[in-house]
Amino acid sequence: MPDTKEQKVEFGIKNVHYAIITDDGKALTYGEAKALPGATEISLDPEGSSDPFYADDTNYFNAVSNQGYTGKLNVARLTDEFRSDVLGDTIDDKGILLEHAEKQPTPIALMFEFSGDLKATRHVLYNVTVTRPSDGSSTKEDKITPNTQELDFSALPDPYTQVPKAKTTQSADPTAYAAWYESVYVSVPTEPAP
Prior knowledge:
Mean pLDDT: 88
Number of strands: 11
Largest sheet: 9 strands, antiparallel
CATH class: Mainly Beta
CATH topology: Pnp Oxidase, Chain A
Number of domains: 1
CATH architecture: Roll
Shape: globular
């Protein structure tokens, strides 16, 4: 019998992973899930609109659209692999990382988890595009405070399934939960009973 308890609180962020998207015109598929260590914060703001329709001198119907999310992900430092895979940077034969003005970011799925009072809630955003991070530093004082890098991103719905996001519940299938970072979770639609 599935666990029916629900989390009371969530906190923290960890286990950030990304997977490169391939779009064949019929479905999104996902490459290998790769770790992006050092996450310090993530924020997700819903995108969409609420459009009222008035009839009979009242708000008769309210159409609400879900256009995914915009957000920010802060990490201690982006890995060179992430910069190459997602931002299109290259490393030359002298080990110098080069940023290219004409490169567009590669869309990814973004996975992460929030800790909680019961079991961590694992999330996946299915169609994410990130922007280049800001960069900077300041002199160290009596204590060393590491810099972080912030990625702005948009997380759109999958254009074929119209699903922008999924997350585990306390009753999630243990196999699906355990394999969350092995590959991007994709729900298989069940056929209706005859």
